[in-house]
From TrEMBL:
It comes from Exiguobacterium indicum. This is DISARM protein DrmE C-terminal domain-containing protein. Residues 601-768 form the DISARM protein DrmE C-terminal domain. InterPro entries: DrmE, DrmE_C.
Length: 846
């Protein structure tokens, strides 16, 4: 097999698809189990692999197909097949159904050839859509002129299982089903999909991400399961040898996981406080007492108590000072912790018991929450940030990655770093670290710092090698960190299951394998947390207080994304306008496709994606340029996200998008450096932009109007010519990017053309809109962006929302509290807000 791979924006090469010894070992184990004599129909094989092996499902699918083809060719050529050698045997018209939400698998198939023939034309390949098998052709019939299926060769069907209802009856004979759970989309209903597949196929192969605690329950005690992970690698090493091929970065198999499995040159340091200020510990202990008193007779807390407890977890686990976090949230038009607390307190009691708790007990709980909030608000550092900054002082001039829970804290923490540190530190959320691995990308560093225990939801991303790991541990975090390391590197249950499964297929004498030296954690507990200079400190070793709960924290951050401030109690809580927390905005009325009308405040300087009339283009316009009947096209459930960027994320794992993102990433680094250099706290941003314009022109650039600079920094436009880019690099101080100018210019040029093409494509969708739009069978299945990127139409349709502009309040401009921007408001409330914050319009600068 050879796959066409982009080596830069304009050039491609054909790269041989390789398999290593571990791939072969897994294939043979799976085939041996499938061919075991006496195995009952509807059998099942479980594989768990590091999620860096995100394309393994397509590799094992073709291995099974070609195993069958090999046996047929041997028979046709008269070769005798050894009775001891078992082959897969498909009957006429039978095939394999691959259930996966990984659309990159289709890109692999589309771009891959076998002996000069496209793989999709050699093996009959289908997409299962609307309960039917449709020829896989990316809407391009001209490239499938050789396609034929007379039933001789086994077929492959790709099924994304989008809809809640799984297909009841197929119009083809399904022999095997392979289920890919490495993408997260189907993990929540994994058990349902497996039970469905067992009733549809002769044998089912389930591919799981290694070390995912939420999926470990799926395989029963007597199931055949191959856990390929850091714990079982010692057994694998005793059977086969395997080494990573560092040139094979586009591997379909396990190549990108091999270093993780070997876990070489890895060390763990746990950093914790020896003692903490007595006042803080006293309030935390008091909090635990008061919340326990609010527990209902069924053991649960009232809803409002649960929600407030999540806020406590959030503010205790910040990596920045609480005051900085709260202020930044308000400045960026978002609800902060105390805003949410005041709103949650108004949730009504559900029953008589909750009313009793509210009257007799809750006020004590509220009081201690507010005491804790006030204490944390006055601190110059949070518990985690002080420890984190202390750890960073140990390192200089090495690459460091910091893993955090809340992406909002990223820029706030960067501001606390000195200039020398910012060049070597990259901050990722656990979610981002997780998602990169599912795209077979591992971010390398000399040191990785975990600011909290690894969230259970993303635990399958706990994959490290050739690195020093620093744990930031507060109070009872230590226990979780030790359990995590033990579960990854010394999971005796996985070892037992692995040995049992290998014995089943005839691989014996594995019980005598010597256990390798276990990975240890070095504990550093010489830190102290002091609130005041002469405060009394208490040692932490005997204190049993937990402050971290990843489930509560992730649930809170998820709910904050859609947190709505409604009703006039918000207005009554603000007696004065604080212009630091307001934005000049205009009131408009919009109507959705079901003719529901809402009123929304739109910031006057924001650009929105607008389609006008029946034009086949989407424009980026300010609210002052809106007209009645315009269509506002936006990301579903998030009015502020950029539509085109969100769509292109669906193709982020294609080689071309990786190159584009690399170039755009350099461009963003240049902008950040320029902003840090020129933003000196000026009252108006316009002054900053004008200073940048002068500096660019003094260094050989040619910018006529500061609006060009504005559009760069608001991401409405990107640099177009070399002289301005060169000048920007000079004034940024990032001279090392001079060699990257071609990459940046070609990347942004390609991205610009993609945005234009996307706008036309989405406009075409909207113009043909009907009540049946969401019935996927009436749409073309794929949207092509150039020759290289293809995205399922249904993914785009499910992502976007349309609203018609039905009224523009020309005089409805005011400095509106940031929390009320882009919120769906009823008319009376919107008018009330407008009346409160209206002002005589004055000229304001940026």
């Amino acid at each position: 097999f050879e796959e066409k791979i982009a080596i830069d924006i304009a050039n491609y090469k054909n790269q041989k698809i390789k398999i290593n010894n571990l791939d072969k070992f897994i294939f043979n184990c799976v085939l041996e189990n499938m061919n075991l004599k006496g195995v009952e129909p509807n059998g099942i094989t479980y594989l768990s692999l590091p999620q860096l092996s995100s394309s393994f499902s397509i590799l094992i699918t073709y291995n099974i197909i070609f195993n069958d083809i090999a046996s047929k060719l041997l028979k046709l050529t008269g070769n005798n097949i050894s009775e001891e050698r078992e082959f897969i045997n498909f009957n006429k018209n039978e095939g394999i159904l691959l259930v996966s939400h990984n659309i990159d698998l289709l890109q692999h198939v589309w771009n891959t050839t076998f002996s000069g023939e496209y793989l999709r034309e050699y093996v009959p390949t289908y997409i299962v859509k609307a309960k039917q098998f449709k020829v896989f052709n990316f809407n391009n019939n001209s490239k499938n002129i050789n396609f034929q299926d007379d039933g001789t060769l086994p077929w492959i069907g790709f099924y994304r299982a989008h809809k809640k209802e799984l297909i009841g009856k197929f119009d083809k004979k399904v022999k095997y089903i392979i289920i890919d759970f490495i993408p997260t989309y189907h993990r929540k209903r994994a058990k349902q999909i497996i039970e469905w597949a067992k009733n549809k196929a002769e044998h089912v192969i389930v591919i799981l991400p290694s070390n995912d605690p939420y999926l470990s329950y799926l395989a029963s005690a007597d199931a055949f399961k191959l856990p390929i992970n850091q714990s079982t690698q010692k057994i694998i090493n005793s059977i086969i040898t395997y080494e990573p091929d560092y040139d094979d970065i586009h591997s379909w198999g396990t190549n990108n996981s091999l270093d993780v499995l070997k876990s070489f040159d890895i060390s763990f340091n746990l950093n914790e406080y020896f003692s903490i200020d007595k006042n803080l510990l006293k309030i935390l202990k008091k909090y635990e007492i008061e919340i326990e008193l609010c527990r209902k007779s069924n053991g649960l807390y009232p809803e409002k108590i649960q929600k407030i407890d999540r806020l406590k977890v959030q503010m205790m686990n910040l990596i920045v000072p609480l005051k900085d976090y709260e202020t930044a949230k308000r400045m960026s038009k978002q609800v902060n912790i105390f805003d949410a607390y005041k709103k949650i307190k108004q949730i009504p009691s559900l029953d008589e018991e909750e009313k009793s708790i509210e009257v007799l007990l809750s006020h004590h709980f509220y009081k201690v929450f507010e005491e804790l909030y006030d204490l944390l608000y006055e601190l110059s550092n949070s518990l985690r940030s002080e420890l984190l900054l202390s750890v960073l002082k140990k390192y200089s001039s090495i690459k460091i990655i910091i893993l955090i829970i809340d992406k909002f804290e990223r820029n706030l923490f960067v501001n606390k770093l000195n200039k020398d540190n910012t060049n070597v530190i990259e901050i990722l959320t656990y979610k981002e670290f997780h998602e990169l691995q599912m795209k077979s990308q591992y971010v390398k560093a000399d040191t990785i710092i975990l600011t909290t225990p690894f969230p259970t939801k993303y635990f399958s991303a706990f994959n490290f090698f050739n690195v020093n790991i620093e744990f930031i541990s507060i109070l009872n975090d230590k226990t979780r960190y030790f359990k995590h390391v033990d579960n990854i590197y010394n999971n005796n249950n996985d070892i037992r299951i692995f040995v049992k499964s290998l014995n089943r297929i005839g691989v014996k004498h594995l019980d005598d394998i010597k256990t390798e030296k276990q990975i240890s954690i070095n504990v550093l507990n010489n830190y102290k947390f002091v609130i005041e200079g002469k405060a009394e400190l208490l040692e932490t070793k005997d204190i049993n207080i937990s402050i971290f709960d990843d489930v509560k924290l992730l649930e809170l951050l998820k709910s904050n994304d859609n947190y709505e401030l409604t009703t006039s109690d918000y207005i009554s809580s603000l007696s004065n306008i604080n212009y630091a927390y307001t934005t000049k905005a205009q009131l408009i009325e919009i109507e959705d496709l079901d003719e529901n009308k809402k009123w929304i405040f739109i910031p006057v300087d924001d650009h929105l994606k607008i389609q006008r009339g029946n034009k086949d283009v989407i424009e980026s316009l300010k609210v002052s340029n809106f007209e009645l009947e315009d269509l506002w096209i936006r990301v579903n459930h998030d009015m502020k996200s950029d539509l085109f960027n969100e769509i292109l994320k669906l193709a982020s794992n294609t080689p071309l998008m990786k190159w584009i993102n690399h170039g755009v990433g350099i461009w963003n680094e240049i902008l950040e450096s320029v902003w840090e250099k020129f933003n000196k706290g000026q009252r108006y941003k316009k002054n900053v932009y004008e200073d940048i314009l002068k500096a660019i022109n003094l260094n050989g650039g040619n910018i006529k109007n500061y609006v060009t600079i504005v559009n760069w920094f608001t991401h409405e436009n990107i640099v177009r010519d070399q002289v301005n880019l060169r000048a920007l690099i000079i004034i940024s101080g990032k001279e090392e990017f001079m060699d990257s100018m071609r990459i940046v210019l070609s990347s942004v040029s390609k991205l610009r053309s993609m945005h234009i093409q996307l706008g036309r494509t989405i406009s075409k969708l909207i113009n043909s809109y009907s009540k049946q739009l969401l019935e996927y069978n009436v749409l073309e299945e794929w949207i092509r962006i150039g020759e290289d990127i293809v995205i399922p139409t249904e993914d785009i349709v499910s992502m976007i929302s349309f609203s018609k502009i039905t009224y523009i309040n020309v005089e409805g401009i005011a400095d509106i509290p940031n929390e009320l921007l882009y919120k769906n408001l009823n008319k009376n409330f919107a008018i009330e807000v407008l009346n409160k914050y209206s002002f005589e319009e004055e000229e304001h600068e940026f």
